[in-house]
Amino acid sequence: MPDSDPSTRGPGAAAARLSDSQRIAPGTKPRANGGGRPQEPERKKLHLRPVWIVLILLIPCLALTLYYSQMAVPGGQVKGSLLPTTSYAMVLLLVNLDLIGLVVLTLLLSRNLIKAYFERRHRLVGSGFRTKLIAAFIGFSLIPTVLLAVVASGFLNKAVDVWFSEQIENVMKDSYEVARLQHAGHITLAVNSARAIGQELFREDMLIPEQRDLLIAAMARKRMEYGVAGIEVFSNKMETLTKALDANVPAVVLDLPIGQLVLQVINGKQEFTSVQEAQSGRLVRAGMPVASGSHSGELAGVVVVETYVSESLLTKMEGITRQYEEYTQIKAMKNPIKAGAYLLVAVVTVMILFSATWFGFYVARGITVPIQRLAEATEAVAQGDLTVQIDAKATDEIGTLIDSFNRMTQDLQGSKSKLEETNLTLLNTNAELDRRRAYIETVVATIAAGLLSIDRNGTITTFNPSGERILGLAGDRLQGRPANEAFKEFGLDLFQTAYDRMLADDRDDLSLEGQLDVQGKLITIGLNGSRMRDEANNDLGFVLVFEDLTELIKAQKVAAWQEVARRVAHEIKNPLTPIQLSAQRLRKKFFEKSPDLDRVFDEATNVIINEVGSLKHMLDEFAKFARLPAPQMTRQPLQDVLLETAALYRAAQKDIELLLDLDEDLPPINFDREQLKRVFVNLFDNAIQAMNQKGRLWVSAKYDTKKRRAVVTVADEGPGIAPEDQERLFVPYFTRKKTGTGLGLAIVRRIITDHEGQIQAGSNHPKGAVFTFDLPV
Fold this sequence. Notes:
Layout: H1 10-17, H2 39-72, H3 86-121, H4 127-163, H5 166-204, H6 212-226, E1 230-235, E2 240-245, H7 251-254, H8 259-268, E3 272-278, E4 281-291, E5 299-310, H9 311-331, H10 334-382, H11 397-446, E6 450-455, E7 460-463, H12 465-471, H13 483-489, H14 493-505, E8 509-518, E9 521-533, E10 539-548, H15 550-592, H16 597-626, E11 634-636, H17 638-652, E12 656-662, E13 669-671, H18 673-690, E14 695-704, E15 709-716, H19 744-754, E16 758-763, E17 769-776
Parallel strand pairs: 12-14
Antiparallel strand pairs: 1-2, 1-5, 3-4, 4-5, 6-7, 6-10, 8-9, 9-10, 11-13, 14-15, 15-17, 16-17
Helix pairs in contact: 2-3, 2-10, 3-4, 3-10, 4-10, 5-6, 5-9, 10-11, 15-16, 17-18, 18-19
């Protein structure tokens, strides 16, 4: 709202601003609302308060009117009554409130215009310029606003008529009828198909045991012929005789309970239907009794025909029904919607006019007020207040003058402000560094793993409490001492090995696992070393993180042997079953003096001999796995073993394309030639069997210069590895193949582990599996 109080205008007001009571006292900062005139913001707030109150009440009323007219009111009145519904009455009440708010807003706008008119008649300072600006803004906005309101009202009227036209209503109604008929069609298809199939079963007498094969074939044919989701035939004792189900229908739908429907048909001796809902769609079932051909008046069985309504079709049918119901409800609010739209256009029109008037006052005040603020601020500076700033906004020459004044006072106080800011920043930085250091020390002290850090000079700087607990050494016995000296004194050979290898190989990280004698007890330690670097990539030393793996390894071994025992028991049990059955059959034929005893004797003994041989072969493989010899390590090229193994498979497997990628920079490494050849043979055999003896096999050998490791990968384009089998691939006697002992990958892992390497399996993109292992160089 503009400040048009007569007491602040004219020559009298200028004299009042120069009086002592209106001057800025030293130390105060005049602002845009007048540091020397505290009454002005209060008058401004008093002028603005009615407008804000009206707007705060009017906007929610408009929103509620639109909501109740479009969403919440299903109809204008209760059926069979002349009185409107409660919701309809609420809409009428809200419309009246909107009209009242519109009238009040118009009165406030008129008040401002009348006030400006009287100020001009009294020739107050700035009233003429202010009146011209207001008239200009109102004139520029009135014509397009009224024209826009008229056009918008016409468009809204036509739009609402189109929304609720008879054509749209017919389309919605026809869509609803189509959705209803679609559901009825599935029921009719199921009932008619069940009747036809039931008559054919009765006519052909297919439910007798001698016609079982014919029944199965006929039902499969009938399912395709009628295009239904499934056909199920039951005996009069509710025994399933045959099922013909569509493989494209989700199993979770076809597995819905059917027993109640079959029981109803058997008890009632008449047809029944059921509609069952599932997460993947709707299943319609029609059960039809089948009379016995040999016993008049009795049921031979029940045939159930199933039709499936997919989830997408069901969702569309439900959506059409819901939209039709919503359209019917909303149509009753056609007139309130129109009224609300017209009211909204009227309110927007009045608000535009009000904004134009207010903006005229604002522009006028933006020109006259800055000059007054500058005079008051100059008086404050003259009295010694160098911190004064003028907040009045201006972009013309007056604004340049105000900016120059503000820069002058800022320059006078600049040095002091910068010094205070610098001191505050330094204090905050030091406090933040202290908090971070305390946080890091707390983390290091409380983590469960042991942590030992070595600086660039080889001195141990950190040894946390968890490390003291694991190694049984006090921190003060290691901290501050050279790492080589401390490791040697306390027999920390694993730490010494890791430290030496990272120094010698210039490695950034290293993982080792070994055993240490801690207070007469042998424990297994898992150690990970990393090189520390700062933001400039300068070497800061090493950090060694370690943990006691003794109990974990024991638990893993127990679990592994439990799995092996279970697998061995399962594999031994498999051949015992045919051996037992063959012996029982032979014994039966012998006591029966059967004429085909010789033939049965030959077949049974062959089965027993073959199964015993299979059992012996399995035990031999397990014995080989248990007696795997220690590797005989010699330094030799890894490429030679790969080329030799590849040559064997290229000669034997004509349909296998073997692709080799061997790094020429790979240096000779220490390994047992025969054992590593066995690794490649097992990996190649698994890949070829996975691809059914046909496909491409990729083999690569690379040299990781950073880790100083030889990395070998074997990838195929077979079906790949199931996620649930990922963790059990290397467990003895685990296999998904119909033949084989499941020891191949277990032997491969044993050999790679004996060579101080690691092996892992993953997915090959876009398809297949890939095995990767690394060996130290």
